[in-house]
Write a structure and sequence with these properties.
Blueprint: H1 2-16, H2 22-40, H3 46-54, H4 63-82, H5 90-103, H6 113-119, H7 124-138, H8 141-156, H9 164-176, H10 182-199, H11 201-209, H12 217-234, H13 242-258
Length: about 260
């Protein structure tokens, strides 16, 4: 729910401001997932007993939906926070650390399912894709750039897998498709640039592995070189923002070093 996501966002914000330690943040953020899993297993926890005594009866969701919603609220809180922090900021590095620790979290409670769900980052990719699509429509250039830099970082660090296609989609849109406005192009170009800057040759490796036919791998390298040329061209467009042009120039330099 939005209320649960807001509660999780408050915890994430407290961690980023150093009001909470990493350990405290992980414990508080994982508590709703543990609670949902214990309910699913028919275990009555002290937390649920206290809540039952002090709240009016409410329509209960199926246990599977409760744990799924708890996880998606957690991921939404982290993704929302990521939109406010730039690639090189300490806060974004702290969010990467937080996600890594959540992935390795083990619960001392009677529920093992919560640890399994966290260890596999269940529903993270689904939530990230929904967030990415929503941000595409509504975000500022800075928010779009920050979100993509965070997703690129957690992909580069192998914390998550299977989101690289978002970077490729962003890059194709920026470099191969005519956009309706310079403002939209500015945002998409910056988002594309951070994927290349962060992932470098890992993104090229992903493209090559996604191309099964050996004969088509030459085309992948040709596209990479074409993108490098386009990034270089975009970096000199005076009608685009300085930040987007700088990212385009840096992306072109990274691509030049790779191929």
């Amino acid at each position: 729910s939005s209320a649960e996501a807001q509660s999780q966002f408050t915890i994430v914000s407290s961690y980023l401001s150093s009001t909470l330690s990493l350990k405290e943040a992980v414990e508080r953020l994982t508590a709703p997932i543990t609670e949902a899993c214990m309910q699913k297993e028919g275990i009555i926890s002290p937390l649920s007993t206290a809540q039952h005594l002090h709240t009016a009866p409410q329509h209960k969701q199926p246990p599977e939906e409760t744990s799924k919603n708890a996880l998606k609220s957690l991921w939404t809180a982290i993704l929302d926070a990521a939109k406010s922090h730039t690639l090189d900021s300490p806060a974004q590095k702290a969010l990467v650390t937080l996600l890594r620790d959540l992935k390795s979290a083990t619960e001392p409670s009677a529920s093992e399912n919560s640890a399994k769900l966290l260890n596999s980052l269940s529903f993270f990719n689904e939530t990230a894709r929904e967030h990415w699509a929503r941000t595409w429509r509504d975000a500022t250039c800075a928010e779009w750039t920050n979100l993509n830099s965070f997703l690129a970082r957690v992909s580069k660090c192998k914390i998550v897998a299977g989101l690289e296609d978002l970077g490729l989609s962003n890059t194709r849109s920026a470099l191969e498709t005519r956009q309706d406005s310079e403002e939209l192009l500015d945002a998409i170009l910056a988002g594309a640039g951070v994927w290349i800057v962060v992932m470098g040759d890992d993104l090229l490796d992903f493209m090559l592995k996604s191309t099964e036919e050996e004969s088509k791998k030459t085309g992948v390298h040709e596209r990479w070189r074409f993108w490098k040329t386009r990034f270089s061209f975009m970096s000199h467009r005076a009608d685009l923002s300085l930040s987007s042009r700088e990212l385009a120039a840096e992306a072109a330099a990274v691509m030049h070093r790779v191929v």
